[in-house]
Amino acid sequence: MVYSNSEQMRCIAELTRVYSWRRVVAVYEDNTHGGDSGGLALLSQALQEVGSKIEHRLVLPPFALISDPKEAVKEELIKLQEIKSRVFIVLQTSLPWVTHLFREAKNMGLVGEDTIWILTDTVTSFLDSFNTSVIYSMEGALGIKSDYSDSSNAYKSFHAQFRQIFMSEYPEEDNLEPGFHALKAYDSISAIIKAMERMSRNSSSSPKELLNNILSSNFTGLSGQISFSAGELMHSPKLRVVNVVGKKYKEIDFWFPGSGFLKSTEDENGGGAVKLEGPVNWPGDLKRIPKGWAMPSNAKPMVIGVPGRTSFQKFVRVVNASDDVNGYDGFCIELFQEVLKVLDYYLPYRFVAFNGTYDELVDHVYNKTYDAIVGDITILADRFEKVEFTQPYAESGLSMIVPVKSEKSTWIFLKPFNWQMWAITGATLIYTMIIVWILERQPNSEFRGPLVDQIGTTVWFTFSSLFFVHRERISSNFTRVVVVVWLFVVFILTSCYTASLTSMLTIQRMQPDGTNIDRLIRNNLTVGCDGDSFVRDYLQNVLKFNAEKIKKVSSEYDYSKEFQDKQIYAAFLELPYQKVFLSHYCKQYASNTPTYRFGGLGFAFQKGSPLVADFSKAILKLSENEKLVELENKWFPHSPECSNDATDNETDSLSHKNFWGLFVISGATSTVCFLILVIKAYWLNEDQANGSPNKSRIVSIARYIYYGRTVSPSVPAVSSSPEIEAVNIPNASPRESSGLLINSR
């Protein structure tokens, strides 16, 4: 008749999940029946499934063996004061122990703000039996109890009889209500009676027959449905979450394994709430959700470790270690103070400067010497095993810094255009040159004569147009159109070329000196890094640098001197430090390797601390409202001389993609003018070409374009030997008519 504890433990685990209680303390009595009766293992498994864990176990000795229960429980509770978790789950415990436990816990301040007590049904079912002083010491506790229906006729009949009999036997008791265990006892007797009645109808009777009849029971009892499978109750109980308020308790929500927390059983098939829907009276009349953690107080503030020796003091700087207000400065310190303003509660703290490595500082949080770390702590996998980090407030990575050298090139005049741009520009120029020669060959005498002279004139004309110094007369209107478009293209190209070349000559172009990791390792060159950070171990264990060739540099201002003295040939800095360093030395140094990424910079807390979630949320808010950007601009301003860093603002060569439209317009214009000339030649030769083969027509058109007149295909236009040919020029002036047009062939 005993329900399995698994569902109850899952309900408790769900409470820890929805309220972000990551660490709990299990409290139970080590009695003669097996301690916690298996509840501890079930609880541990359920907590593990939701990301929580049992941090400590408070095991109470059997009550019957203790002569002074008050002192015994006080000694155990003193141990809890050294533990940060303030979520106490009371498992199997006798009622006398519960009485002493809560009274002493109340006196020691373990029942109050940010403290949670969760009771299993072994305690909750007897809340009606405790006197008011014990209930008062449990104020704010949450309990799990099995629910039952009190509206059935069977329950009403039982309730009336129970009150009457109980009052007659225990007249001094004030509470006459039957508890859940009374209902279970009644259902147990009912199951046995029904089994015996079935046996009386049969001739055979034996203990085995009685057991079989009991296990075949199937009826609705006062505590719920009574039916068995494999020797256990088939139906899980309906669990109810209760809240101790004042000198009594109130029922809040139901909990169903597949649905979560619900206000009523009618919503069982629907979606449950994320948290308890009913109002909860938290311990100490707290208006917010308790943290379930030993929160700092003025008497016992949070101890925060701060890196005491940092290479880049703009992140963290210890001015006066004894002054928590003005003795610590830097970007990380001011960010921490801004986070405190966002939190909805007061958080007393005390800074402690730590003059050791960052890994040693993390170990001090792991062993609970410090509660947290505020500083430029890099989030790494091995550190994540020891502490919990907040949301990163800055990106992190490892990059290599090397000296830069000025870029000098004999062929810098070619760099304004890339090679594709030069090739397309040259092709367009040649094409335009050919079209101009074709169009001007017929009407312009300056483009006639020996072939060498024609080529020279055409090339000179086209190239001189680049500088607008050509002297040749243009006769054809088609040529004028081509030249106008070409001059427009030339104007755009020369303007862009001049601007790009001027920029390249004006801005000092700086390039890394070519040093890389392989060269450093191969030549056994010395590199520098911050010796207190993880970088030294990373260079040695991951990048395989020789430990003797890794030099510790203690200040950001020492890197430049180490480079100048040839003590180091490269420096390995985390990305935030690299940005600060290059903002001051952008003309002398540059990053010369892909960045090795890490988890970022964040604050560190003890495992299970609820402050991690609060700080992460606050950092996100500061990032969203740009307060984080303001802090970065305040502490890491850009140097005026590095605002236009040539390393980051190099003038790139112009590409043909930037001028594709110009080339298309120029080429299309030249092509259209040439096609018009071809069509004109075709029309003029059409009459003479009737009946002629296509090859003869093409020859006639080509002769017209070259000679400027129609020539019959049957009459050869060119003799095999040089001769002088007189040509009548139509519509020519007398001076022109008297002359001869000499063609030398």
Automatic annotation (TrEMBL):
Q: Which residues cross the membrane?
A: 419-439, 481-501, 659-683
Pfam families the UniProt entry points to: ANF_receptor, Lig_chan, Lig_chan-Glu_bd
Q: Name one GO molecular function term.
A: ligand-gated monoatomic ion channel activity
Which coarse location class describes where this protein primarily resides? membrane
Question: Which cell locations does it reside in?
Answer: Membrane
Give GO cellular component annotations, separated by semicolons: membrane
Membrane topology type, per the record?
Multi-pass membrane protein
Q: Can you tell which superkingdom this protein's organism belongs to?
A: Eukaryota
User: What keywords are annotated for this sequence in UniProt?
Assistant: Glycoprotein, Ion channel, Ion transport, Ligand-gated ion channel, Membrane, Receptor, Signal, Transmembrane, Transmembrane helix, Transport
The record's listing under InterPro entries reads: ANF_lig-bd_rcpt, Glu/Gly-bd, Ionotropic_Glu_rcpt, Iontro_rcpt_C, Peripla_BP_I
Supply the Gene3D superfamilies for this chain: 1.10.287.70, 3.40.50.2300, Periplasmic binding protein-like II
Occurrences of domain Ionotropic glutamate receptor C-terminal (ranges) = 303-638
- Keyword Signal attributed: yes
Q: Which family is it part of?
A: Belongs to the glutamate-gated ion channel (TC 1.A.10.1) family.
Cited PANTHER family: IONOTROPIC GLUTAMATE RECEPTOR
Protein name (database record): Ionotropic glutamate receptor C-terminal domain-containing protein
